[in-house]
Amino acid sequence: MYYISYGSNMNIEQMAYRCPKTKIYGNGKLKGWKLVFNYHADIIETGNEDDFVPVVVWKLDDKIDQMSLDRYEGYPSYYTKILIPVIMDDTGKKIKAMVYVMADRRKGVYPPSVGYFNGIRDGYIANGIELSPLYKAVRECCKTENITEFNQYNPQPIMEGVI
Asked: What is the pTM (predicted TM-score) of this model?
């Protein structure tokens, strides 16, 4: 099975620890999706083909690795799983792959911690992925109009730490 990562599982060292038998298949893009933060990374479907999320696609065939990943992602209560198409960067080929998306009742906007963000950034860098979509997503979640009574976290530490 192919697995799409767009957050902390883009980090090669972290994935090696969590899923030692899982190997990188390649980089790709999710067209019509947008990266957001609700403390942890999430993706939302926009339907706009100009929107995209850069991702790392993994070959995840080991059952123990799959169970480890499910545990890490809090499946099925924190994240759920769906199958979606991803366009591979090297070939332009579209393949179906599994991805975790935040459970509907958890959707929202909330800045990540600096350490969590830096782990994702390290994954972008190690996989040769342009950082601008990541910075765009974190800036968006830190906009004053996105801070509500339900997510009163002060975004200043993430803004100072990563932007």
From this structure: 0.89
